[in-house]
Amino acid sequence: MKTSKKTIIVLFPVCIILFASLFSSKYPDTIETFAINQGFKNQTKEIVLIFNDYNDLPFIVNQFLSSFCSGIIGLVLLYILYKTVKLFTK
Asked: Is the distance from CB of 25 to CB of 54 less than 8 angstroms?
């Protein structure tokens, strides 16, 4: 069975996202922990985002699946950005 180059180009990043999703954490990173410890986290203006805080996609309960879907959405957005930049730099 011969695998096409396009199939490999699509599946490789999806496999990387799948693997990286295993190691994602719902806990705050170092910068947010520092802001909490110094007491200025609550002084910032809150905005509502799709990927707000560490919940990835809040409507998906499973953390692994939520992280995986977030990665796929990010991959698609990066591809759209790549195609847009490529279109305007010709």
From this structure: yes
